[in-house]
TrEMBL record:
Belongs to the radical SAM superfamily. Lipoyl synthase family. The keyword S-adenosyl-L-methionine applies. [4Fe-4S] cluster 2 binds at C138, C142, C145. Binds 2 [4Fe-4S] clusters per subunit. One cluster is coordinated with 3 cysteines and an exchangeable S-adenosyl-L-methionine. PANTHER family: LIPOYL SYNTHASE (PTHR10949), LIPOYL SYNTHASE, CHLOROPLASTIC (PTHR10949:SF38). InterPro entries: Aldolase_TIM, Elp3/MiaA/NifB-like_rSAM, LIAS_N, Lipoyl_synth, Lipoyl_synth_chlpt, rSAM, rSAM_sf. Its EC number is 2.8.1.8. Pathway: Protein modification; protein lipoylation via endogenous pathway; protein N(6)-(lipoyl)lysine from octanoyl-[acyl-carrier-protein]: step 2/2. This is Lipoyl synthase, chloroplastic. [4Fe-4S] cluster 1 binds at C107, C112, C118, S353. SUPFAM superfamilies: Radical SAM enzymes. It comes from Lupinus luteus.
């Protein structure tokens, strides 16, 4: 569905306390805030079974359960994953404001468990909502994701890049994370649309910091290069899981080596580019496989890595194999930092653009900009 709003599928983070919306202007409501837009952040896991090629290609079965779906009655959700239903004054204000602007949020579309914490501001006073560019319908059918899918989504709005930039500039924000669904129906996968949006924002507000959490553009390195040179500060793309489980968890058009290639090319396309990725735990992966994936990511100099627990959104999605303990997540954070990652966010409810890393990443980007400036002197 395409919304008839001026700012379809942008993403917003509101600083707290949440301000009273001022009078309407040509840009609807102006919110002094920090903006973030993130990609699909669902985290899931399959049962411990062997998958044949024909079974993998079939994907989730809309007509009923497949061999890797359904609830496992022997795997009970632990207390540390139990979240209160989202509520609170700030949550309701943000929800109402987003509805007024006719924006779709990844928070709701992907059934993110952090929606209450993020929209209410957590402990640091920064409330975050996440919205998608390029529509709300994905062309892929990954078995872990709750985003709706279609082979032929509605075409992108050609005015979206400039309208998004105008809205963001009017809100006076200093950091934004742009994301999108996969758009394999577009020749460049939407890379040009991303780049236009980034350039429009930088033209209007050069000091704004921009992170893009992208698809793999089907391995099209020219598309990666186009986005890397658009002016963004952080290039994020998720490998999702360890090498062995890729064909079970992800759409056949995705892949481990393809994702590594995208991250590697983004890093080397532009000097100083900060790269970021995410791995889901609870998929049946072994410690050695996680360490292997981390070594592969460090070999291509990925800066930031997040770990989170897969939560099954519906019985038609992959079954949870294991609930990883908070202590084990803490171990992966310590181990990742010991082998050279600049930042690790690791916890049961962490998602790929988890808000806990925001202030750190902003500092990292500012340091990069300062160093780039010093090198020109």
């Amino acid at each position: 569905m395409i919304h008839q709003s001026l700012f379809k599928h942008t993403s917003i983070s509101f600083s707290t306390p949440f301000p009273t919306p001022p009078k309407r202007s040509r840009f609807h409501n102006h919110f002094p805030s920090t903006i973030r837009c993130n990609a699909s952040d669902s985290l899931l896991s399959p049962p411990s079974v062997t998958v044949t090629e024909s079974e993998h290609k079939s994907g989730p079965r809309p007509g009923g359960m497949g061999p890797y779906t359904g609830r496992d009655p022997n795997v009970k959700k632990p207390e540390w994953l139990r979240q209160k239903a989202p509520q609170g004054e700030r949550f309701q204000e943000i929800k109402g404001s987003l509805s007024h602007l006719k924006l779709n949020t990844v928070c709701e579309e992907a059934q993110c468990p952090n929606i209450g914490e993020c929209w209410n501001g957590g402990g640091d006073g920064i409330a975050t909502a996440t919205i998608m560019l390029l529509g709300d319908t994905c062309t892929r059918g990954c078995r872990f994701c709750a985003i709706k899918t279609s082979k032929s989504p509605p075409p992108p709005d050609p005015m979206e890049p400039i309208n998004t930039a105008l809205a963001i500039a009017s809100w006076g924000v200093d950091y934004i994370v742009l994301t999108s669904v996969d758009r394999d129906d577009i020749p460049d996968g939407g890379s040009g649309h991303f780049a236009q949006t980034v350039k429009a924002m930088k033209d209007l507000k050069p000091e704004i910091m921009v992170e893009c959490l992208t698809s793999d553009f089907r391995g099209d390195l020219k598309a990666v290069e186009t986005l890397a040179h658009s002016g963004l500060d952080v290039f994020a793309h998720n490998v999702e899981t360890v090498k062995r489980l890729q064909r079970i968890v992800r759409d056949p058009r995705a892949g481990y080596e393809q994702s590594l290639s995208v991250l590697n090319h983004a890093k080397h396309s532009k000097a100083g580019m900060i790269t970021k990725t995410s791995i889901m735990l609870g998929l049946g992966e072994t410690d050695d496989e996680v360490k292997e994936a981390m070594a592969d990511l460090r070999a291509i100099d990925v800066d930031i890595l997040t770990f989170g627990q897969y939560l099954q959104p519906t019985p038609l999605h992959l079954t949870v194999k294991e609930y990883v303990t908070p202590e084990k997540f803490a171990f992966w954070k310590e181990y990742g930092e010991s082998i050279g990652f600049r930042y690790i966010a690791s916890g049961p409810l962490v998602r790929s653009s988890y808000r806990a890393g925001e202030l750190f990443v902003k500092t990292m980007v500012r340091e990069k900009v300062k160093n780039d400036g010093d090198s020109l002197l």
